[in-house]
Design brief:
By secondary structure, this protein is α/β, with parallel strands linked by helices. It contains 13 helices and eleven strands. β7, α11 and β8 form a beta-alpha-beta unit.
Length: about 325
């Protein structure tokens, strides 16, 4: 569940008030919930706590809030939505508009009556704790096929800041942001360098080109894949050869061997593998030298997942697509 903490409750939590200790403990242990606040709450929390805390302790509590709650930015659209709300003060309207903009599941406040004009379920901290014990707030009635929202609270603010920085510096093509990504990704992959490209198709095409694959070559690709896998092969002038998948939905190595045995009988010798690698620990990449003769099947066979991050021709770098 994605829970919004209103400013009044946040002040109690940040101030470590005794009456908020149960709710605070629940936040620390509720691993299947994410807790959100509005960025507009921070100045109010700071002002309230500054009356009773010394400067060092004040900064410590503000840092605590930043570390434990995901923060919804005060965007123009939220301000406009707040201005349209009638019969409530603007600060409360901003809180409500923030929770609605991110389609959160529940709002926690000491003043439920102030937030009665929203479709989001609104409860007090005590009622929230009570209902959590009996799963009364669990509104999930089906498991989504793809739930990317589940990770929002862990990465949202970091991503939002990076995107804002890119827009501020108009760094849409090349520039420092791509340099930072390439160096960081190469370090993670323990490679000497990384090439950032715009798509998986480009990553495959560049990798194939670096391996010298072109007209007269055949490339084995898995059938359980996106069309770009075969498209990149065709862009090089080579011929894609589809191979069925194994129980793990990767290209079936045994079926590759069957094709190679057939090729050996056609061209008079068995192609020799010059590279074998794969991200799952199983060999998924096969590169075979030699041009085809009389319809043979030489030179290359690999899984697209391996090629899109392979070490290019020298095995020293990686290609990373968005």
């Amino acid at each position: 569940m994605r829970v919004f903490i209103n400013t009044d409750v946040l002040i109690s939590l940040a101030g470590n008030d005794p009456e908020s200790s149960r709710f605070l403990n629940m936040i620390h242990t509720a691993s299947d919930h994410s807790f959100w606040i509005s960025a507009a709450s921070i100045p109010q929390v700071h002002h309230s706590l500054s009356k009773r805390l010394v400067p060092g302790a004040l900064e410590e509590r503000i840092t605590y809030v930043q570390d434990h709650f995901s923060m919804i930015p005060l965007r123009q659209s939220i301000v406009c939505a707040a201005l349209e709300k009638k019969d409530i003060d603007f600060e409360t309207a901003v809180q409500m508009a923030s929770a609605e903009a991110f389609k959160l599941d529940c709002m926690v406040t000491h003043h439920v009556d102030w937030l009665k004009d929203t479709y989001i379920q609104t409860v007090t901290p005590d009622l929230f704790i009570k209902n959590m014990r009996f799963s009364a707030l669990d509104t999930v009635n089906q498991v989504p096929f793809l739930d990317l929202k589940a990770q929002h609270h862990q990465i949202y603010n970091e991503i939002d800041e990076k995107l804002t920085d890119i827009i501020t510096h108009t760094g849409f093509i090349l520039g420092k942001h791509e340099d930072e990504f390439e160096h960081g990704f190469a370090k993670i992959q323990e490679a000497e360098y990384c090439i950032g490209v715009s798509s998986g198709t480009d990553a495959l095409h560049i990798a194939l080109t670096a391996l010298g694959i072109g007209p007269g070559d055949a490339v084995m690709v898995p059938v359980n894949t996106f069309m770009a896998t075969a498209e990149a092969v065709s862009l090089c002038g080579a011929v894609p050869v589809f191979v069925d998948c194994d129980d793990h939905f990767n290209i079936d190595i045994n079926k590759i061997r069957e094709i190679l045995h057939k090729t050996e009988s056609e061209i008079g010798h068995r192609p020799t593998p010059v590279r074998s690698a794969g991200p799952t620990g199983q060999a998924q990449t096969y590169i075979y030298p030699g041009k085809s003769s009389g319809g043979g099947l030489p030179k290359a066979a690999f899984n697209w997942a391996s090629v899109s991050s392979c070490g290019l021709a020298e095995g020293k770098g990686v290609i990373a697509s968005r």
